[in-house]
Write a structure and sequence with these properties.
By secondary structure, the protein is an alpha/beta fold. The protein has eight helices and ten strands. The protein has one domain: 3-Layer(aba) Sandwich (Rossmann fold), CATH 3.40.50.300.
């Protein structure tokens, strides 16, 4: 390696370190980071992420929503409302919609139907910029609407964000369950917790059963079913605010997720406590 190559490599390492430090500083006041994920697009994970975030805000938590799907961002459309983020000296103040702080590439498009065409490195840089430039403030939960697939975009989010756990979304069809299984295997390879599986679009049209079956096969909690309802036709606000039945479905999901997060938090604190005890003796 030539001297010029060594210097270029050192400069690259320095930039990456500085970027990582900026991201850590930006996310430092967030207690819990939750990913909503599936390797398959079209299973409704954005709808789940939006309604989960609004559900948590409605129940008194400070919540943010990061739409990490860079090339096909839809969270603001599902969220409804007309709030937009603000830019000040290169920093992003998230939009505040229904009590949730929201950031999405969708806000920065001139036209909603514009095709965002990016190669892997560009997506990686865009995600990193979002993470280091956004002022989230103090949050109990950051819900991350993950990009679909098992390649550059979700891998970047998983590697840069220290996620506390993932909720995996499937529909009743076997093909969706197969792709959900692929996403679970990816999460496990990266040693991150899978909190459980949600089955979306259940009912007479698509049937039921893929979610519970996959949860049993992979020894994971089944968090609950989300029925395909006419309530979702109202795009003015998240459906969890308009339908008592939908809110009850999220009650059931959160009744499983919340104690599991508490268990994980307690387990993470045990080694620190043991280390302090050892130091004292």
């Amino acid at each position: 390696m030539s001297e010029d190559q060594k210097q270029a490599r050192l400069a690259q390492i320095k930039r990456q370190w500085e970027q990582r430090r900026a991201i850590t500083r930006s996310l430092g006041r967030i207690k819990t980071k939750l990913g909503v994920y599936s390797a398959k697009g079209g299973v409704g994970k954005t709808t789940v992420a939006v309604n989960l975030a609004v559900y948590l805000a409605k129940h008194g938590h400070s919540v943010g929503l990061l739409d990490a799907d860079i090339d096909t961002p839809n969270a603001p459309q599902v969220m409804g409302g007309d709030a937009r983020p603000a830019m000040n000296e290169g920093r992003i103040t998230p939009a505040d919609t229904f009590g949730v702080k929201v950031v999405s590439m969708s806000y920065f498009q001139q036209n909603a139907d514009e095709a965002i065409i990016m190669r892997g490195p560009m997506i990686h840089n865009s995600i990193n910029q979002f993470l280091q430039m956004t002022d989230w403030g103090d949050l109990d939960y950051l819900v991350v609407d993950m990009p679909p697939g098992t390649s550059d975009s979700p891998l970047t989010v998983m590697q840069v964000l220290t996620m506390d756990g993932f909720i995996v979304v499937t529909t009743p069809q076997s093909l969706a369950a197969l792709d959900a299984k692929r996403s679970i295997n990816m999460i496990r390879k990266l040693n991150v917790e899978v909190l459980g599986i949600v089955e979306n679009f259940t009912g007479d049209i698509f049937g039921t059963g893929a979610g519970p079956g996959l949860a049993e096969e992979l020894d994971l909690p089944f968090l609950g079913s989300l029925a395909l309802r006419a309530d979702y036709r109202d795009n003015s606000r998240p459906t969890v605010l308009a339908s008592a039945d939908v809110e009850a479905e999220y009650d059931a999901i959160w009744a499983v997720v919340e104690p599991r997060l508490a268990e994980l938090e307690a387990a993470a604190e045990e080694p620190a406590a043991e280390g302090s005890a050892g130091a004292a003796t």
